[in-house]
Amino acid sequence: MTNTENFEQPLIELEDIHRTFVTCGGVEVHALRGVSLSIYPGEFLAIMGQSGSGKSTLMNVLGCLDRPTSGSYRFSGKNIKSFDADGLAWLRREAFGFVFQQYNLLSTATAEENVEVPAIYAGLPHTERRERASELLTKLGLGERMDHRPSQLSGGQQQRVSIARALMNGGKVILADEPTGALDSQSGKEVMALLEELARNGHTVILITHDADVAAHADRVIEFRDGEVLSDSGYKSTQESSTISRQVDLSNIEESNSLPAMISGFTEALQMGLRSLMANVFRTVLTLLGIVIGVASVVAMLAIGEGAQQDVLDRISSLGVNMLTISPQNRGRSGRRGGASATLTIEDAQLVPNNISNVEYVLPEIRSNGTVRFGNLDYQTTITGTGENLPEARGWPLAEGVFFTEADSEEYAPVAVLGQTVVQSLLPDGGTIIGQYILIKSIPFQVIGVLTSKGSSGFGGRDQDDIIYAPLKTVGLRLSGQTYLSSMTVAVEDTNLINETEAELTAFLIARHGTEDFRVFNSAELIENVSESQKTFTILLGSVAAISLLVGGIGVMNIMLVSVTERTREIGVRMATGARQRDILQQFLAEAIVVTAVGGILGVAIGIGAGQLISLLGTTVKFTPQPIILAFSCAAATGLIFGYAPARKAAKLDPVVALASD
């Protein structure tokens, strides 16, 4: 039995430890039955027993991978019952080093990176980790194999990497579970020699084995059967010098919870996440695809929506954002020709500037359609009588010639200014028409000017250049035979007062006409209404595109859940080497965020490229920073939201169950 007369304080004390499992069928399995044991610093101890004896369960309890069902476990004088999950992780990281029968190395990492794992969770800077890992591997004869992956190493070399990993954070207590079980005899001898050397240097080595020859290397042998201690050769005190402190200081257990350590841990999680994703490129690409399509759709769709909105607003603005357009409203009275409503008069237009405040100018119009002849060519177009201030009011300069004057209108002068489409139709072979006479409804008019090209209005595709302008009274008397206006445009000086001006103008015309026989069209209100409608349209486009982003997020969650299932053993290894639940959570969240961030960047680039391609086809596209930032942020948030469930599942895994996974 254990030596209780020794004055040295035990490092590990077990008292009446029981561990009971309940199978899926409800059957209780008693793996440990009242085990009491004291292990002293620097001991080389072998726990020997056949398969099913409970020795592996005891190792899991000793290494804080599992908790006892009942009994007391004191480590360095402190009951581990008071330790939470992170506290146990700290203890595994700072006090224990595990050497597994199947090595349990990360297949995607090099030998050096495998050795570094415990130091990552300890918060050791990258340079120090690299130096420490290199030193340990060189010392164990693997200096030239540091950049090799486990599949490129022999069994003995892999076990030496496992030993180096166990020593990375000091490894005061080495737990070796059947360390020679998967090795040939020569490699087994080399591993046992390493463990003996570690014991001589002051490490506490606990060897789990079924082989009596292997157990014979230890200074103390405990035989185990049916979950109970069958025999114990007893503690043998040694006076040999050690190169390490035999006791474990538990006073700094909270140091790794500091902010710098947390920031460093997240940075490392991002790097590990990126390496993990690169290890399975095809799956990563498939996962990226959903996010890329979603983000690209959002960026392109919103750009198209913004472009459509801007296009409409620009076309309306080209007519003037400070305009009030008054048009007659048919109340049953009909004009003499064309059926135009006889409500607005030329006199109304002349009186408005002197009776309404905040008026910059008034532009009356009488419109009619007719046939124009030049030489032997006939052309059907719109003839509009208007005021002399049209070029300034509409921002429509002349390409050549002059515009008519107020005197031309008062004298009913038969002069005309043509739009570009009319000129091209009457002069298909080119040349100048200035000074020439044309017949409008069989009445000769002299062409005195040609307007610049204005293009389509965008409202029904009407060609604004397909028009002839003549003096207002000339058209009223000579062409349409009426003095009633088709419309009257009033430009206001201060757009902030446009609504007040509209009310004043409405009241003035009602007073003149005795009834409201007209309609007022407010361009500012139109712009506001169109803007709101286009915003709704843009939101609709964005919502449709966001559905694909949602589908991409579901894909991320699905792939991450599969990844957690496939990498269960890796999670167990990381937990055994000291990873806290938050470290595992961070790593898998980091992988999800990396996937969605990369997908977001690619999606933004593709979305912009698609938008540019669409713009080449004649569709107006407008890129603004907000939708791009929104799309990328949503992609990152998608990774965070949809990656949380798989990450949490990984973090909540039981280390023992995870290590036992195939």
**Approximate strand percentage:** 15-25%
Task: Tell me the structural class.
Answer: alpha/beta
Mean pLDDT, rounded to whole units?
83
Please give the count of helices: 20
N- to C-terminal distance:
37 Å
Low-confidence stretches: 1-7, 332-340
Shape: rod-shaped
What is the assembly state of the chains in this entry?
A: single chain
Radius of gyration: 44 Å
Number of strands: 20
Helix content, binned percent? 40-55%
Quick one: biggest sheet? Answer: 6 strands, mixed
Strand order of the largest sheet: 6-7-8-3-9-10
What structural keywords apply?
six-stranded mixed β-barrel, alpha/beta, 662 residues
Verbal overview:
The protein has 662 residues and is an alpha/beta fold. Helix content is 47%, strand content 20%. It has 20 helices and 20 strands. The protein has helices spanning 55-62, 85-94, 111-122, 126-139, 155-167, 185-200, 212-215, 259-279, 281-318, 346-355, 390-394, 406-410, 420-426, 472-479, 498-513, 523-566, 568-576, 581-616, 625-651, 655-660; strands spanning 12-22, 28-39, 44-48, 70-75, 78-79, 96-99, 173-177, 204-209, 220-225, 228-232, 323-328, 359-374, 377-386, 398-401, 415-418, 437-440, 443-451, 467-471, 487-492, 518-522. The strands form 3 sheets. Strands 6-7-8-3-9-10 form a 6-stranded mixed β-sheet, with helices on both faces. The chain has a 6-stranded mixed beta barrel with strand order 12-13-18-15-17-16. A hairpin with a 2-residue loop joins strand 12 and strand 13 (377-386). Helix 9 runs antiparallel to helix 16 (523-566). The longest helix is centred in the last third of the chain and has 44 residues, at 523-566. It is rod-shaped, with a radius of gyration of 44 Å.
